[in-house]
Design brief:
Length: 130
């Protein structure tokens, strides 16, 4: 087993990574700026996959632990965006129903909506022809 310590992004950030001979990666990351993070992630890969991943990461000037951490952060950011969008959509739907229930909006049938949309499209097409 060998240990490597990634170069800290700030003085208050440390990443410690342990990789053993069968490809088990262990991450311990601590960050003391806005919040504290002490998380360990382990997964198994075959030796060839680990070797190739290390070569690719090193060719990009990164360690394998850096690449794994960055992927984890990207996945988390994607999930944050999904959560934020879901919250926004829920708020919009709830606001629409509140408006409808309070009489501040008018229900439009599917047929009426299609006719209105076709009229809008035609108006845009006519402007583009001029």
């Amino acid at each position: 087993m060998f240990l490597s310590q990634g170069a800290p992004a700030t003085e208050s950030m440390r990443l410690l990574v342990a990789v053993n001979s069968i490809g088990v990666l262990t991450f311990v990351c601590t960050f003391h700026k806005e919040f504290t993070m002490d998380t360990r992630i382990q997964f198994r890969v075959d030796e060839e996959t680990k070797r190739l991943a290390q070569i690719m990461a090193e060719s990009q000037g990164r360690t394998l632990s850096d690449a794994c951490r960055e992927l984890t952060e990207e996945l988390a950011e994607q999930q944050r965006k999904i959560i934020n969008h879901d919250q926004w959509l829920t708020e919009e739907v709830n606001a629409a129903f509140s408006k409808l229930e309070s009489g501040q909006s008018k229900f439009v049938s599917h047929e009426e909506a299609n006719l209105d949309m076709e009229a809008r499209k035609m108006k845009i097409r006519n402007k583009a022809k001029k």
